[in-house]
Amino acid sequence: MAKPKPLVQSTGRRKSSVARVRIYDGTGDYKLNGRELDNYFTDPELRRRVHEPFKVTDLEGRYDINATLHGGGTTGQSDALRLGIARALIEVDPDLRPVLKAKGMLTRDSRKVERKKYGLRKARRAPQFTKR
Q1: DSSP code for 118
Q2: What is residue 1's predicted lDDT score, i.e. its pLDDT?
Q3: Fold of 8-102
């Protein structure tokens, strides 16, 4: 049996996490790196954040999500997935943009870890000074 063609594809990023999201017509199933949502994100708060774009737009249970997540930690990955889902929903229905934008779901959180500088212990932490 051939794989169904995705309705839309989009990308979400946060910190060093990247989520490639594919949306299919379906019943609300999530496949994240081949695993179910409950197995991938064990924290209920992270699962809630992933569901948020569907709750805001009243589209719960209408689409299946297949996503590839890599990089970063669980919080970064869940926020990247949330942004990817919101962007994909806009591609499906451009009329959803004002609703998602008002809730701040289209804003990419661009904060990243600052690089370590030469001569310092961390990005800004200098070695301890000794007078004698």
Answers
A1: T
A2: 57
A3: Ribosomal Protein S5; domain 2 (3.30.230)
Distance CA 69, CA 11 (A): 10
* pTM attached to this predicted model: 0.88
pLDDT tens sequence across 40-63: 999 999 999 999 999 999 999 999
Cα(25)–Cα(63) distance, rounded to whole angstroms?
Answer: 5
Where in the chain does DSSP place strands (E)? 8-14, 17-25, 30-32, 63-70
| The residue type at 76 | G
| pLDDT at site 6 | 77
**One-letter-per-residue 3-state SS of 70-106:** ECCCHHHHHHHHHHHHHHHHHHHCHHHHHHHHHCCCC
| C-alpha–C-alpha distance, residues 96 and 15, integer Å | 26
Residues in the chain predicted with pLDDT less than 50, given as ranges, are: none
